[in-house]
Amino acid sequence: MKFEEAKDAANWCLNCKLKPCSTKGCPMRTNIPEFISEIKKENLKEAFNILQENNIFSYVCGIVCPQEEQCEGSCIRGIKQTSTKIGALEKFVNRWAKENNIEAEILKKEKNGKKVAIVGSGPAGLECAVELLKVGFEVDIIEKDSKSGGILTYGIPDFRLPKEIVQTIVDKIIKLGANIKNNMELGRDINLKDLQEKYDAIFLGIGAETPSMYKVSEEKLDTIYDSDTFLRAYNNKEFIKDLGKVAVIGGGNVAMDSARAAIRMGAKEVKILYRRDRAHMPAREIELEEAIYDGVKFKELIRVISANVENKKMVSLNCIKTEIVDGKAKDIEGTEFIDEADTLVFAIGLKPNKEILEKQGLELNEWGMIKIDENGRTNLDKVYAGGDDTESKSTVCRALAAGKRAALGIIDKYC
């Protein structure tokens, strides 16, 4: 988007007094009409400051968030016409600031003598740290991986989210005063009981790491992957060799990312097999379109039953056609067929590690998520949580909002 295009897009905004785009659509409650008004005035620096003051992850949100469902989905213009291009404008302002070396100042109060441990350096944990650091808390971030960022680093590929954007934000948080301790895992190197003795509060933002998969073969095959393992290999530049023909099961953004990563890792052919139709697909339309543009084939209304194996290698998949009945995918009797595939990737969701959470004494809900109240508090004293470990299908922006909400709960209790 060029500057004149941005001005035209900004002028489309009605500057509504009720601001449903912010109050209803945006989990982070970004001051959307305010930053767009500054674009109209050609004051891009102030527009950038408004975005950053509320959310230092604004650039990330402008790139990966489903604006069509969130802010743009609540735009008054969208009722009878097209919505204001809020996501594109947010991305434009942040890119302009990056290209012009503009940095927003983050105001920070004096230390208040309180110390918080944050377990997990994904969006929820990092945002929680930001809000606490601003008001004077000392913050230690404990991360199991060698790099910080969680899903932003290991999950979302660089062709969708450049890693230098993530690292810039991590560097800002370190500059704010965060102490990041990498290669330390909950349940292995640390436990909540010890943290409760050392810190005034603890925030858990460990995400979901247990893949949802089902058995397709009685034999153990090394060409069947979960999406987390597959995308980590890509993001760590540890490309998987000889993928051959790849089939990805799933219809969400992670399935699109896995398929596009497979293309870049040298797969001969990549297809997405989805048991429902395109209308019921959870992935953003733009993500599917970009996957198809990259060469990925999209096959809807198909369910994978099992794998066919020859010489301990997968050679094809037994599939069946499906139909949508009352919003659910149902098998169509007598429509079984065989589809060629050498590698299979499950991209049908991740769940929190129930075993680790229960061993820490955390109360879980019926879906295996950490049970929290409106302030992010768990059943354990001093312990808060938020993000993918407390809600399913959480977006980056929703995870950020969860981290911010918990931080405000901690601030309210200790300040």
Question: Could you spell the SSE succession in H and E letters?
Answer: HHHHHHEHEHHEHEEEHEHEHEEEEEEHEH
* CATH architecture classification name of the largest domain: 3-Layer(bba) Sandwich
How large is the radius of gyration?
A: 22 Å
CATH superfamily of the largest domain: FAD/NAD(P)-binding domain
Describe the secondary structure blueprint for this structure.
Blueprint: H1 3-11, H2 20-25, H3 32-40, H4 44-54, H5 58-64, H6 86-99, E1 115-119, H7 123-134, E2 138-142, H8 151-154, H9 163-176, E3 179-181, H10 192-198, E4 201-204, E5 210-211, E6 224-226, H11 227-235, E7 245-249, H12 253-264, E8 269-274, H13 285-294, E9 297-300, E10 302-310, E11 313-325, E12 328-340, E13 343-346, E14 350-351, H14 354-359, E15 383-385, H15 396-414
What would you note in describing this structure?
The chain is an alpha/beta fold. The chain folds into three domains: 3-99, Alpha-helical ferredoxin (Fumarate Reductase Iron-sulfur Protein, Chain B, domain 2); 115-207 and 352-414, FAD/NAD(P)-binding domain, CATH 3.50.50.60; 211-346, FAD/NAD(P)-binding domain (3-Layer(bba) Sandwich), CATH 3.50.50. It contains 15 helices and 15 strands. It has helices spanning 3-11, 20-25, 32-40, 44-54, 58-64, 86-99, 123-134, 151-154, 163-176, 192-198, 227-235, 253-264, 285-294, 354-359, 396-414; strands at residues 115-119, 138-142, 179-181, 201-204, 210-211, 224-226, 245-249, 269-274, 297-300, 302-310, 313-325, 328-340, 343-346, 350-351, 383-385. The strands form four sheets. The protein has a five-stranded parallel β-sheet with strand order 3-2-1-4-15, with helices on both faces. Strands 6-13-7-8-9 form a five-stranded parallel β-sheet. A three-stranded antiparallel β-sheet has the order 10-11-12, with no helix packed on it. Helix 4 packs across helix 6. The longest helix has 19 residues, at 396-414. The radius of gyration is 22 Å and the shape is globular. 45% of the residues are buried.
